[in-house]
Every structure is written in structure tokens, then in C-alpha cells.
Amino acid sequence: MIVIRHADVESILNGREADNVRTVAEAYRLHASGQTAVPHSVFLRFPGHDRDRIIGLPAYRGGDRPVAGMKWISSFPANIESGLQRASAAILLNSLATGHPEALVEGSVISAMRTAASAALAAELLTRDARPTGVALVGCGVINQEILRHLRAVLPELSEVTLFDRARPRAEEFAGRLAADAPGLRVAYADSLDEALGAHPLISFATTAGVPHTGLDAVRPGSLVLHVSLRDLHPEALLGAHNIVDDADHVCRERTSPHLAEQLTGDRDFIDASIGELLNGEREFVRVPGRTTVFSPFGLGVLDLALAAAVYDTAAAKGLGVRVDGFLPPPAA
Q: In the chain, at which end, N or C, are there fewer CB atoms within 10 A of the end residue's CB?
């Protein structure tokens, strides 16, 4: 059994944003072609603490390098107020020969990067007819920081970013990190959500919103909205937009905006395609000129396993991680 720590995961994944996007794209292709197993996530909630949750995401990815395991990720938004990360995670990888656990990988970096890689992949795929030069980030936390990093790896045209966070100091801290991380990137602040939505034709929502709070009226015609946090947009707004998801069965759950839209209409006809179908050429997506496109990724556990497998293979090759002997019982005599 090997334990791969946070610092090791960071050292392996940092600087390989384009590779992360390719890894996520391959996982989506395998998922769309039926070479994965992704049961519904399990949500553990706590009576009286509605904002806090822990989610279990089991998954299997086939292909040339099969992997199976589970991500166990917590979200405690109040952590931010005390200087702690909102999310923490661990990923357990199991041997496909014996079923035994073979690696425990710190998962918060992987979770953030697979989310970012998914968003960047959608942005690259869905803006090929008109590349944006700027992006508006709604929510100035770890996820949008990684999304911006991955966006810049696949959309080198990006030269401007507009920041909006309900806590202005958080946006200013974010901008301070960008000065070192992305020198030369022009940074502006939006004083309102509507101002942010109208600033650029590419928008990323990465907030802790639990219920929808905005529509798309302030968005520029033809924009792409990366609806990563899933509960920001009024369901009625989705009904007037193009909708791309990662998996309709997964995203239409747990009172996400697509789930609420399904409840309004009684069907999922408002969903145009999954990103895997587009990557595999199984579904044609014809954009109506001027209509907003919304990408709503539930965040499939198979993406976490895809990156975790890459981390595990690299750690094993470089001798990283802490080996724990005696974790499992010895073989029978």
C-alpha cells in the first residue's frame, strides 16, 4: 500500500495542464463509448448543517490502462472563513487483479484539476468558431484559479480576466496570485454579477451556491458559460440555452439547475449532447447564432481516477509516496 501525499501530487500535476485536459478527454471518450462504470455518487449530509456534505464517487475506467477506485470528498464552506480549504479529498485505488487497495492518494489537487481540465476541454471544443480573448470568473477560489490555468493552456488567446466574488477581498487576493502565476494577463474587477456576466463571451461559475440565483439576461449573445458549480443558474435560463453536459443521468440529480429544469419540463429534451458524444462524433451540435451555450459537468468520478492513475504511475516510477507495510493481512499459509 502506498500513500501519495499532497506535495507529491502537486509536484506531479503542476505544469502539465495540457496533459490533464487530454487525460480527461480520453476518460470522456471511454465513458461515452461504454467502457466505464460510474455509479451514482453517494451524498452524506448532516442534519442541521445543510451546507456541509461528503460525497463518495466510485468508478471504473477501461481502455489501455484500466483503473478502479473511489473518491471521498468533503465540502465544508465555512472552512474558508478560518483559512482552511473548503474541500478535502482522498482517492483509493484498487488492484484490478485482487481488488485489494493499493494506493491512497490525496485528492483535493486532483479534484480541482480534473474539474478545471473538464471546463477547459469544453471551452476549447465549444469556442472553435470564435475564440475568446477574455474570461469572467464568478467565484475567486481554488477551482476558478485552476480553471484559468487550464484555460490558458488550451486557449492561448486569453489575455484578459474579469473577477467577481461577493467578498471583494477574496477577488483581490486572487488577483495577487495571478500577478505571479500569469504575468501580463490584464485583470479587472466587476462590481456586480451582471457586470461580470457581460464582460466577456466566456464565463466560469465556481461558487458555493446551493440554490439558483441568476439568469442569463446579462450575458453577451453567443457566450459560453462553464456552469461548474451547477446550482447558480435559474432553470428557466437553461431552457433558453444550448446545454452540454458530461452525463445527463448524473447531472439531473441533487437539485442542480439541470435537475430543476427537468422537473419543470418533465423531460431532458433541453440537453443537446454530452461532451463525450461530441468528442466521439456521435452527436452533431448545431449552434443557433446568438444563443448562449451552457456546459454543466456533474464531475464524474472516472475523471478523478484517470488523473489519480497518472499520479500513481508517476509516483511509482519516481519513488515518491510513503509505502505502508502490513496494511493488509498477510496471505494465507
A: C
